[in-house]
Amino acid sequence: MQIFGNNRKNQNAVQEEIKSSLKSGNPCYHLVQNLLSSSLLSKNTKIKIYRTIILHVVLCGCETWLLTLRKEHRLRVFENRLLWRIFEPKRDDITVEWRKQHTEELNHLYSSPYIVCATKSRRMKWAGHVAYMGERRVVYRVVVGKLEGRRPIGKPRYRWEDNIMMDLLEVGCRGR
To answer: Whose CA is closest to 71, among 9, 138, 3, 119?
Structure first.
């Protein structure tokens, strides 16, 4: 099993890359599981453990991912599972029973950027880095260049460039 890094293939199998990254994050999670559920550590320390160990392993290579709503949901589910471990169950005032905290409550408690926002941020940093490169660099030519030939019939495939444009619109920037 490969914990760090992703295996790049000729096909654009982003779904498999994300699944592989989440599988890589699971062993890291299980290594620190006792720390995340410990009552001796503060919640801030647990969040730092999550961000420095698990999040970096999961987001390795995320700059090239094409995120759809389904893929974003998979990432959020993974993050919420960890946050439920960090922010223990809460005693409900009305029913006086212990319950898991709702997603909105977790988002309020965890004020750092969510895993999807971190992915988009890294992708935009990489796009800026590539845009700053000269035309002689291979990476720049691959990202900016146009493929020759005809596109297949049907709905056009979702491209990395489209994802970057949507991210820029979310932030409020326009242009290239």
So the answer is: 119
Same domain, 63 and 130: no
Q: Please tell me the total count of domains within the chain.
A: 2
Q: Is residue 176 part of a domain?
A: no
Assess whether 89 and 50 both reside in one domain: yes
Query: What are φ and ψ of residue 70, in 5° steps?
Result: -65, -40
**163 shares a domain with 86:** no
| DSSP labels, 95-106 | T--EEPPPHHHH
Show which of 113, 131, 162 is a domain's final residue. 113
> For 118-153, b where at least 16 C-beta lie within 10 A, e where not — what string?
bbbbbbbebbeebeeeeeeeeebeebeeeeeeeeee
State the pTM of this model.
0.74
- Supply the range of the domain harboring residue 159: 123-171
The 10s digit of each residue's pLDDT in 74-112 is 898 888 888 887 877 666 677 777 667 767 777 767 766
pLDDT in tens, 163-174: 888 888 877 766
Please state, in angstroms and rounded to a whole number, the distance separating the CA atoms of residues 148 and 167.
Answer: 27
